[in-house]
Design a protein that fits this description.
Length: 171
Amino acid sequence: TFEVFNLCQSQTKRVMMNATSVLYLMLRTNNDEMGHFARMKLQSTSAVSRLVKSANCNYDEIRNGLEAMALYKDHARAASWDNQIREFINRHARIIRDNVRAAATPASFVDKKSEIFYQISLEYVYSPDLRIAWLGNLAQLQETNGNLLEAAIAKVQIASLISEYLTQVLA
């Protein structure tokens, strides 16, 4: 999935269009075989998060590739499919926006950057995997800067989210 997203920011339009088509087909195939594409969401979320942290990331091209998927129409599918694709696109656009926002804050402003990480984590209340990722980023930032108490608090929040999830799953 990472390589497909990486090709979505390729230099040539043809490669970008083909990569976007492959991504759409991966979603559709996963949905057809599993009845949903939750695993694809998780893998693509991880891929986009990893990609946007790289120095040579072209945010606009990735966003454009995602938006191009909204134009793909499959009349044999229900309207809910289009809604799921739109949600997928919006989720990844938010990830890109948040990573840009975090990257724009200078490392010397640790308190400001920490606040941004925490605010971003709060935006993902309905997406625990992303919330945990941002709290992990916050914990790592605090550890790196010697703020061990703040790092521990972020890790306790992560543990709480995991515990809550496991309680729901095992209930």
